[in-house]
Amino acid sequence: MKNFSNLSVVNDKILKIKQLLTELEAEAEQFPALSRNSKRALASIKMLELNISDIVALE
After folding, report:
1. Residue 41: which of 11, 16, 19, 21 has the closest Cα?
2. What pLDDT digit, counting tens, does each position of 21-39 carry?
């Protein structure tokens, strides 16, 4: 497994993805499949946040 030397960079990318997915989900009212899939992707991002963001907060 490759070690990340700078977890804060990874955390920033996770937060950017979360922001984009949140915006996409909010704009997908007329496109139910997009809304559902955005919510699913946000659930996956939440798992990444729990794994990475918590470590970054401890540093």
Report:
1. 21
2. 999 999 988 899 999 999 9
